[in-house]
Amino acid sequence: MTLKTIAVDAMGGDFGLDVTIPGALTFLQQQTDAALILVGDETKIRSALTKASASMERITICPASEVVGMDEEPTSALKNKKNSSMRVAINQIKEGQAQAAVSAGNTGALMATARFVLKTIAGIDRPAIAKFLPGRNNHVTLVLDLGANVDCNSTQLLQFAIAGSQQVAALSPENIRPRVGLLNVGTEDIKGNAAVKETHQLLQRSNLNFVGNVEGNAIFTAEVDVLVVDGFTGNAMLKSIEGAVKFVGTVVKEEFTRSWFNKLAAIIALPTLKNFKRRLDPRRFNGAIFLGLRGVVVKSHGGTDATGFCFALQEAYKAIKADSITKIQAGVAQQLTALEE
Amino acid sequence: MTLKTIAVDAMGGDFGLDVTIPGALTFLQQQTDAALILVGDETKIRSALTKASASMERITICPASEVVGMDEEPTSALKNKKNSSMRVAINQIKEGQAQAAVSAGNTGALMATARFVLKTIAGIDRPAIAKFLPGRNNHVTLVLDLGANVDCNSTQLLQFAIAGSQQVAALSPENIRPRVGLLNVGTEDIKGNAAVKETHQLLQRSNLNFVGNVEGNAIFTAEVDVLVVDGFTGNAMLKSIEGAVKFVGTVVKEEFTRSWFNKLAAIIALPTLKNFKRRLDPRRFNGAIFLGLRGVVVKSHGGTDATGFCFALQEAYKAIKADSITKIQAGVAQQLTALEE
Lengths: 341, 341
Prior knowledge:
The structure is a homodimer. By secondary structure, the first copy, chain A, is an alpha/beta fold.
């Protein structure tokens, strides 16, 4: 059995080893054909593993002396932190030691480093940040870009559509023609700004299963499998949704603690409320994929806990198992040839 | 007592008179110093009023023979429907018969007609669609633009900030320096695309209470009173939020009907769940203001019911009462002078 190996930036995120080590150990229990390379301060990693009474089975430690700060400028990290846990973790992919890298560190630095080390797939100009978001009937929609590119032209948006479509097809073999929607201010063909109108035409000419313009609520209505959007708008949508879900949760909490009767109702409704909370738990959807690179790089939320970090590792594991990079490469080449004809 | 008069496009929206008439009658009961001009098919309006056993006190009927279709092109409506209920309702403001107009009709046509008939305030190039959205601690944030302008330059975004700030100050006299936030992909000053970076600098130089860049979740965190965003992104955010809140509601419903025990819990928790639902009821936040025009024009959601339509009328009423147009005019002039110095 060949092990699927993920390089972990063990020092990244708001809580570093306190989150990455327990998350990594849970992950290894769940996936018996996975191995991890823990990258960072060797002494500290060893001590964290000992504290957790972890066996060293399927674990390798790879030393890295530096850590990229959460607020560090991406260019500075790229230039001055060549031995950072983040950089060394990504290097593991390039050197063939790992098939994926996961980090909870600085998003900008991770993107800059991943692009620099791994390069983009032929035909893709810039990678996008992609994330599965949950909607009606347990459907998930892959939304991209979520903030890597604040200005996008139609060529880039088309590339996101192709890469996203291939990623979904790779991960769900029963869905070989994922429905692609283009985020717009209305569903009519003539809507939108110049870049979006151009993208609409490119998508119509492509071989993708393009279903047309959709509005922001399409994430939840299960009408598309891939939602293409520029990084500025995508980021605003993601943060708005996170804020809205959190706010609704607060209202639920406020209402169920408003009076002694409501508190009593809450006790009786506790299993239901817990299940409700679990279904919308952002940790279950943790792990954004940097799509378009020649390697699987997954960004975990910086403030997540061990459970959330484990989900990010699962996201990387699924991408390796689905051989998504090879499929995106083939898909991009095929789509671009079709468009040129 | 001078009556505050609102012209109502009685024929607009998905349900026309079935919604506008009961909504109008409820509104008149709630606001005893308000009067309504019901614009549309006189026979049908009279018949709807008779059916509702309405007194004609504070009600005038203004005949209009045409109706703008919900999918009609704005330019076509503007050119060919000069006697539409929408157009005639807006004319009432220009002719001094009403101080505001409310319509649940076609958004694009309403905006085009309102701009054509009323013109924009001096110093404002294009009006924006603005809406109060609810957040933590019963705070509301005025978000603009929500879709009138899919491409915005920094001058327009600055104008939105000024108009939005004046609107909030007019409506809440205790808040004379509303906090203005600029929607961005991060809070650092250097983030964003070119238009947003320029806007950031203009806002810093302005006399507004500019608190800097904020992310999409700022709508819910009560950190700003006015959130400035281009119409493309603003529309995507609004639709995403509406979709997310609806989705969370579906999950609550699904969980509380999953088993007989959960259904029992739901019965006990019913008052709590009802209050939860009421607090997030989109009808309570119905009514988008077209900000920057020389008159109060409010757009009701096309698919709302009488309760929702009544809230849209309240929004117009509050704007008249606060004399918001005069205040925006003065504010724009003052801010623009300050920026030129």
